[in-house]
What we know:
The chain has four helices and 20 strands. With about 350 residues, the chain is mainly β.
Amino acid sequence: MIAYNKIIRKMVVGFGDLFNDIDLIRYNPDGTEAQRQKVPLAYASKERYVMRLQNDPNLDTKVQMTLPRMSFEMNGLTYDASRKQITNIKNFAPSQSADTILSQYNPVPYDFDFSLFIYVRNIEDGTQIIEHILPYFTPDYTIKLNLIPEMGITKEIPIHLKDTKYEVTYEGPRENETRTIIWTLNFTVKGFVYGSISEPKIIKRSITNIYDSTLSDSDLVEFEVASGGLGDYQEGEFVYQGYTLDGATAVAKVISWNSTTLKLQVGSLTGNFVITKPIYGRQTGAAYTIQAHQILPEHLVKIVVTPDPLSANANSNYLYTTAITEYPYADREAISFDSNNMSVDDLDLTMDQDD
Length: 355
């Protein structure tokens, strides 16, 4: 199971990569190119760079070498309810094992706040860098990130430019012309946070049993009787409670008797059998006292669904093989038939998944 997806790290890297290839060009008076340099980019707060510039004892010379420069940082993240998805829906992907599958719940939407800082020594450098950035945000720009490669999830992430501002800071004596111009651009990245990836086993067979939930004459009742009784009941004989069969308060027909587990199954019940009283067999004369009982509703249908072929996995194209066994009446043999090569759309049943 993969618990850490590095989503926030990918958001930070994806955002920073947008501004990692900006060139600054300085021109001669005749308009020809005099100098070209790549503007360095780092993940750092504005305060760190401002302090570094302010504390430099040789500011005049150092700034010439250090600037221009850019930095960015993530300021925080907030939940975005407007983009909420149904969180209990899972996404699936094939795993390396044929018996398992990768699964992951839908992501949770979050807005990531970022700030980009541009440090320059003159206004011309700052406006040139700004013009490299602003035309792409209207005010959104979308990037594509491979967020969960194990699940094959690639998302298009909108980046929204909220505002742009700049400040000019003069340092040193009044006659000193050294200054630092700082542009600040604030962004919101419309991202997501994903949970862990699980690897459950693939269900290769589904079994559905349908029973008649209403109590009827065809339902079976299983009696658990106390030890120390007499004889053995016989399948097909009538059993009763009372002094005689004619004056019995309850009558039933024996379906099965297990002398080891002391369980008696009967059907075709009339009257009410009472716990702690003996139940007699008409032909065998067997007699045991009832301790407990359980109603066994009539088994109507059994449906077994398996993929075709059995080696199919989540990434395969496969059909279904459906075997249906019907039990229309308790005293008749079961009717069975197979439905081969049945597609998913052909099967409209609610199934309890046993395997």
